[in-house]
Write a structure and sequence with these properties.
The structure holds two protein chains of two kinds.
Chain A (H helix, E strand, L loop, with lengths): L1 H13 L15 E7 L4 E6 L5 E7 L3 E6 L5 E6 L6 E5 L4 E6 L5 E9 L5 E8 L4 E9 L3 E12 L1 E6 L5 E5 L20 E5 L5 E5 L8 E8 L5 E7 L10 E4 L6 E2 L4 H6 L6 E4 L5 E6 L4 E6 L4 E6 L3 E7 L2 E6 L3 E6 L2 E7 L2 E9 L1
Antiparallel strand pairs in A: 1-2, 1-28, 2-3, 4-5, 5-6, 6-7, 8-9, 9-10, 10-11, 12-13, 13-14, 14-15, 16-17, 17-18, 18-19, 20-21, 21-22, 22-23, 24-25, 25-26, 26-27
Chain B lengths: L19 H29 L3 H19 L6 H8 L8 H12 L7 H4 L8 H10 L8 H34 L12 H28 L18 H19 L5 H15 L12 H29 L12
Helix pairs in contact in B: 1-2, 1-7, 1-9, 2-6, 2-9, 3-7, 6-7, 8-9, 8-11, 9-10, 9-11, 10-11
The chains are: A mainly beta, B mainly alpha.
Protein name (chain B): Signal peptidase
Subcellular location (chain B): Cell envelope
Keywords (chain B): Signal
Chain lengths: 355, 325
């Protein structure tokens, strides 16, 4: 990722005007939203050492974000149901643009730029029936909405770029009521994993066995070979040991991770984030409810776990996996070893976005 | 911009938060000592005479010493507690696992160290609840007898392992919270918060699961979903869990807790009106009402502790754990 960014920054620098790049924002490697001690919300840039590189105030609670591959621009998405997303210039801390979804639709917390930075994809749903939509935006001087495509499911949440330039979407399957968070269809959920090409045409779709219909597919991590790790949240009877991590490579059947029973129950049926490790050899999933991060091999084998209260944000780190929690902790997980990188008087929100 | 924003590791480095040593020294560590003692006695009893009538009193005594610790599910207990008390078990993992062992006359029962490898559903107190008190199992049967002994011996070993892990390592991590080398608790407040949240989530578990599961709905009560109903411990466990919460709250707090103590009196009064210690009569509306009242009093105890202990410390629910997304 650093390579791609450096390459693009180089291209821009070779152009006419002197380009402003991520170096002007302190060269962060990550973005993370947080609530500060006084109750205000902000978006932070973080480097791999856990140092803060920038802080930009947010008007409300954020969720996840998307960093532009070359320019120091971050799109910060509001917490679901999102009425806005802010395009923030991380070099000067100014809000460059405020994006709003079309009337009758809401942002769902996640989105991504295309690899070349010319397009932004936003995950949305129709307020009326929770039908999923992927918003398409062209990035020129600023972002302009150029269209939308169906996400091919109800209540989509996360979206990631595939190595071939296509998209993978986690259609969580949960319909929500008028307030945008009340779940209204838990008895008839049909989550799926959908692959779209860059123009939004369906390429593939994965649906799990009916007994896992209440396992909402919510968050994604994509390995360089195209294997998709998907993290799930169980909406069925509490105390049921269910897989919370699935692995899928197109053309093959999905593999469901099967940790030991005590480990399965310790996650409380809830995985809040997922990340591939820095060496690409394992996936970690976090449960803020269970206060736990579990690690699995690329084949789905359980490797180990770490306990940490209110842990949620995860991202690949050269040393393993970076984790954040609601107590302000920034931790490097090196296998089952925890190395605190710092502690800030903030509550880190659900996700860390790797740049 | 960057220089002003460097995060300080060990920002809150300070001595252990008041209350943490008290919780360890007055409640948790002596609790594990008692648990080791009583599970040891249980194992010795079963080894001498494995029949249900003989083992039952030792089982109850051991269970009584677990309840003060049952809801402290952190550190060594975060998964360790499950193999001591595997519940809830709506899918019947415990009978399935026990029946599998019995059907195969699995020789795993002959080596206590091997028994630690069986499904956690076949280990601990709930396995004994079933083997000793369910008419489907006959402790006079030679294999079942061996199984009872194996579960009891394994439980005593679990107790020793947990006790040692708490006393040797985890207690030190709690006491040294915020120290530079402490990777578990980055500040004294984190240690305090960790123990305090166990008190609240434990009472929530008691209200929603220990009482809520058998209550089911008015149309469909589920008495067989009560915890340890076979050994008629359901009500006793609720009371012991509430006692434990009150005791830990006092250890953690630096002030008197009049609201908490009053709420505990109400819990006891409500419990005294429940007739069936195993909640098996709750399809009767009057009996059901008493259990509902008890659940309400347990929730009130939780609120009292949140107000008297949590609020002064400024501890709020988890930012992420309470969000859900």
């Amino acid at each position: 990722m650093t390579t791609r960014r450096g390459f693009l920054a180089g291209l821009l620098a070779a152009g006419s005007a002197p380009a402003i790049g991520w170096a002007d924002a302190g060269s962060p490697s990550y973005l993370a939203a947080a609530r500060e001690a006084d109750g205000a919300f902000a978006l932070f840039g973080l480097d791999t050492g856990g140092n803060l590189t920038f802080r930009v105030p947010m008007p409300a609670r954020g969720h996840a974000g998307a960093g532009h591959p070359a320019r120091p621009l971050a799109v910060a998405f509001a917490r679901r149901p999102g009425a806005f997303a802010l395009v923030i210039d991380c070099a000067d801390g100014l809000v460059r643009q405020r994006l709003t979804p079309p009337a009758g639709q809401s942002f769902n917390g996640h989105g991504s730029f295309s690899a070349d930075g010319t397009r932004l994809y936003t995950v949305e749903q129709r307020d009326e029936d929770s039908a999923g939509v992927i918003g398409l935006w062209a990035m020129e001087r600023e972002l302009t909405r150029i269209g939308e495509v169906p996400s091919r499911g109800i209540g989509p949440h996360d979206l990631r770029l595939m190595p071939d330039g296509g998209l993978v979407v986690a259609n969580g399957g949960i319909a929500t009521g008028a307030d945008g968070r009340e779940k209204t269809n838990l008895g008839e959920m049909q989550p799926n994993l959908t692959y779209l090409d860059a123009e939004g045409r369906v390429q593939d779709q994965v649906i799990l066995d009916p007994d896992l219909a209440q396992c909402s597919i919510r968050h994604l991590a994509v390995a360089p070979d195209g294997q998709v790790g998907f993290a799930m949240q169980w909406e069925g009877a509490p105390g049921t040991p269910v897989p919370l991590l699935g692995l899928h490579l197109r053309g093959e059947a999905p593999v469901l991770a099967d940790p030991p029973l005590a480990e399965a129950l310790a996650m409380w049926g809830y995985a809040g984030s997922i990340a591939l490790s820095g060496d690409g050899r394992s996936y970690s999933i976090s449960s803020p409810r269970g206060g736990r991060v579990q690690r699995f091999g690329r084949n789905g084998a359980f490797l180990g776990s770490v306990a940490r209260a209110d842990v949620c944000g995860l991202a690949a780190h050269p040393g393993g996996c970076l984790a954040t929690d609601g107590l302000g902790g920034l931790l490097l997980l090196e296998g089952d070893r925890v190395r605190p990188l710092g502690s800030a008087p903030v509550a880190w929100d659900n996700h860390i976005v790797a740049l | 911009m960057r220089t002003a924003l460097i995060l300080a590791a060990g920002l809150f480095a300070a001595p252990a938060a008041a209350g943490v040593p008290e919780a360890l020294d007055q409640h948790i560590l002596p609790g594990f000592d008692r648990f080791v003692q009583e599970t040891g006695a249980l194992a010795r009893t079963a080894e001498e005479d494995c029949t249900a009538g003989t083992v039952a009193p030792a089982y109850h005594a051991a269970f009584d010493t677990w309840m003060p610790l049952a809801e402290v599910k952190i550190g060594p207990s975060d998964t360790g507690a499950l193999s001591v008390l595997f519940w809830p078990d709506d899918r019947g993992f415990t009978p399935k696992a026990l029946n599998g062992l019995i059907a195969d006359a699995d020789p795993v029962v002959t080596q206590p160290e091997d028994y630690a490898e069986v499904s956690i559903a076949a280990r601990g107190l709930m396995a004994l609840d079933m083997l000793l008190f369910d008419p489907a199992y006959d402790s006079a049967d030679p294999y079942t007898c061996q199984l009872v002994t194996a579960v009891a011996v394994d439980l005593a070993r679990q107790a020793e392992t947990l006790q040692a892990a708490w006393a040797d390592e985890f207690a030190a991590a709690l006491r040294s919270a915020g120290a530079a080398e402490n990777a578990t608790f980055l500040s004294p407040q984190e240690a305090m918060r960790a123990l305090y949240t166990q008190v609240l989530s434990g009472l929530e578990f008691t209200a929603d699961q220990r009482l809520g599961r058998p209550l089911g709905t008015f149309e469909r009560p589920r008495p067989r979903r009560a915890e340890a109903w076979r050994s008629e411990r359901s009500l006793r466990n609720v009371l012991l869990a509430a006692d434990a919460a009150q005791s830990l709250a006092h250890a953690l707090a630096e002030t008197d807790l009049p609201l908490t103590d009053a709420a505990m009196v109400s819990v006891r009064e409500a419990a005294a009106k429940v007739n069936d210690p195993g909640f098996q009569d709750i399809d009767d509306p009057q009996a059901r009402l008493q259990v509902e009242v008890l659940a309400q009093e347990v929730r009130s105890l939780r609120t009292a502790i949140a107000n008297e202990v949590g609020a002064p410390l400024g501890i709020a629910p988890g930012f992420n754990s309470s969000d859900g997304d």
